[in-house]
């Protein structure tokens, strides 16, 4: 059975109007064209659906039984088409984003609010994870778009926008480095350090920068999360190095943030997607907002 929406819409219109003439006017069709649609529908179902003469049109018993089913099918398909159009135009849908925790805790909430203001029907699935996991989620299509850190070497990922995230030192107010206006490489290399765990994008930048110093490093501990690193600094275990945009760096009143006077303490960040994959229209809109923040 081959049914189409126009033929079903024609049957509903004739049944409701009780007249081919009035139904044709409602559908903005000629009466012959409407008759062709009804006949095509009757051929598809294999039964006469209307009894008609020059003055009267009435549904047959088969037509009466089919009408509520076809009317519901028509409503369901029109709903599907409206929803599909909204998805295609970016007026609804789900944004699946993986991003660095620093981005999730700083800029992301405001971006979500802005997006929901413009597109109330948008839904967000957010994964705030380290850079390597961001890349894996996008590569495996568990996220449509990601904001990652460090150099993007994965050939399956396409970089949509790049930016930089400057790193700063965080130490207690009573620490000797707190009295310095800016810190140099040797200042950091000679202090006990609380560094984020190996494998994170921040740690990769810090290791590369500190490798320029010949002094042996005193690494007190290597926590995974930035808030843990801040807690270790508060306890007096050392100095940590974190992105300037991380809210954790200003989470403790007894700590101070110091700029690092060395060009190597900069983390590259990038918006990425799976190469060769088309982003949903709703995600394209969100990427436009993300670009403005880099």
TrEMBL record:
Keywords: DNA-binding, Plasmid, Transcription, Transcription regulation
InterPro entries in the record: HTH-type_LysR_regulators, LysR_HTH_N, LysR_subst-bd, WH-like_DNA-bd_sf, WH_DNA-bd_sf
Family membership noted in the UniProt record: Belongs to the LysR transcriptional regulatory family.
UniProt xrefs under PROSITE patterns: HTH_LYSR (PS50931)
Protein name: Transcriptional regulator, MarR family
Gene Ontology molecular function: DNA binding; DNA-binding transcription factor activity
Domain HTH lysR-type: from-to ranges: 3-60
An annotated GO cellular component: cytosol
Entries under Pfam families matching the protein: HTH_1, LysR_substrate
């Amino acid at each position: 059975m081959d049914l189409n929406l126009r033929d079903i819409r024609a049957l509903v219109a004739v049944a409701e109007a009780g007249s081919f003439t009035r139904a044709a006017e409602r559908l903005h069709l000629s009466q012959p064209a409407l008759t062709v649609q009804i006949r095509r529908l009757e051929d598809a179902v294999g039964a006469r659906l209307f009894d008609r003469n020059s003055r009267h049109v009435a549904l047959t018993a088969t037509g009466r039984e089919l009408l509520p089913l076809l009317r519901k099918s028509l409503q369901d398909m029109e709903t599907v088409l409206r929803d599909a159009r909204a998805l295609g135009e970016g007026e609804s849908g789900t944004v699946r984003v993986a991003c660095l925790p620093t981005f999730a805790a700083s800029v992301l909430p405001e971006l979500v609010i802005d997006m929901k203001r413009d597109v109330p029907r948008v839904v967000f699935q957010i994964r705030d994870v380290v850079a390597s996991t961001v890349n894996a989620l996008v590569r495996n299509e568990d996220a449509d778009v990601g904001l990652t850190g460090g150099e993007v070497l994965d050939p399956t990922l396409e970089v949509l926008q790049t930016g930089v995230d400057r790193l700063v030192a965080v130490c207690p107010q009573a620490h000797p480095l707190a009295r310095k206006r800016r810190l140099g490489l040797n200042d950091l290399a000679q202090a006990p350090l609380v560094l984020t765990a190996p494998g994170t994008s921040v740690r990769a930048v810090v290791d590369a920068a500190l490798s320029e110093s010949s002094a042996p490093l005193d690494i007190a501990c290597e926590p995974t999360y930035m808030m843990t690193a801040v807690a270790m600094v508060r306890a007096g275990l050392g100095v940590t190095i974190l992105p300037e945009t991380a809210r954790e760096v200003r989470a403790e009143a007894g700590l101070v943030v110091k700029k690092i006077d060395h060009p190597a303490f900069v983390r590259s960040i990038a918006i990425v997607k799976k190469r060769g994959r088309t982003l949903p229209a709703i995600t394209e809109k969100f990427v436009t907002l993300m670009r403005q923040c880099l």
